[in-house]
Fold:
Amino acid sequence: MSSLKYLISYIVPFSALIALAYNGFLSFATVIFVFFILPIVEFFMSTSTENIDKEKKDSFLKQKFFDLILYLNVPILYGIIFYYITSLNRENIQNIELIGITLSTGIVIGACGINVAHELGHRKNKFEVFLAKILLLPAFYMHFYIEHNRGHHKNVATEFDPATSNKGEYLYSFWLKSIIKSYFSAWKIQLNLLKKDNHNFISLKNEMLVFQVIQAIYILSIYYFFGLYTTLFVIFSGLIGVLLLETINYIEHYGLKREKLPTGNYENVKPKHSWNANYTLGRIVLYELTRHSDHHFLASKKYQILDYHEDSPQLPFGYPTCMLISFIPPLWFFLMDKKLVNYEKVKV
Structure:
C-alpha cells in the first residue's frame, strides 16, 4: 500500500484531461487542483517527519513499481500535449478557455515533465537519463539536465548558483536571473567538458548543441503541421512549466548560504542548505521533491527513500501555498525573512 500511494500523483495529469475535455471554468481544472484544493487539503492535514527503516528502504529499492510510475509520465505528458494542440483548434473556444487549458497544460509540463525529469536525471541508467531529457523537451529546457546535475548541485547556496535565491530577492527578477544564467552556465559546463575530453564543438558529445537541434526540430514540426497560432501557444505552455520550476527553485533555497572556509572553498552541502516541507499530500504528488534537504545531501537517493532531517529548515506551508505566497513579494518577505533569522539563531 505504501507504494500505491504514489498513484495519487496522476491526479495532476487527470485534472488536465478534465480541463481539455470540458469548457468553462473546468478549463482551469489543474490550476484549481494545484493552487486551491491542494493547499486547503494540506492546511488541514498533519505533516509527517517519519522516516522508513532500512529494511523497508531495501525493499522499496527492489520494487520496479516506483520506477514504472515515473516512466509512464512520458506517454502521459506527450498525450496531454497532443490533446492540447487539437483543443487549441476547437471551434467556438473562448479566450478564457484558451487561458485555462494553457495554464493546465503548462502545470503538467512542470509537474509530469520537469519534475519527473529531475528525478530520472540523477540516475545512472542510460534509459532513465534518456527519458529525463525527453521529458524536458516540451519545456524547451533540456539544458537543465547539465546545469542542474553539474552546476546547481555543486554550487547551491553560493553566489555561483543562479538557481539559489537571495534574501530579499524578488521572485520575478529571480526568474530572469535563473533562466538566463542557468542557460549560459550549462553552455560553460559543456564547453569545459568538450575541452577536457578533447572533443570538437560539432560533435554528438556536445549535448548542448544536440539539445538545441532537437528542440528546434520539435517546434518546427509543430509549426509545419499545425501553424504559427498553435506553435505560439505550445511555447507559452512550456514557459509556464519553466516558471513553475523556477518558482520552486526560489522557495527551495531562499536566503540559505553555505559558509566559506578559510581555504576559500565552501562547506559541503548539508540538509540545512535547502528548505524542507513534510506535507504528506504534496510530497506524494511531487514524488517527494519537498524532502529537498535530503535530496541535496545525497542526490543519488531515489525519491521513495528520501529522509527527513531534524536540522533542515522547514517551510511554513507546503509547496503550492508557498508558491502562491511568493507571487506577492512583500508577504513572502514578511513570512520568510523572520523565519530565516530565527533559523540562523537556532543554528548558532
Summary: The CA atoms of residues 56 and 305 lie 9 Å apart. Residues 4-347 form one domain.
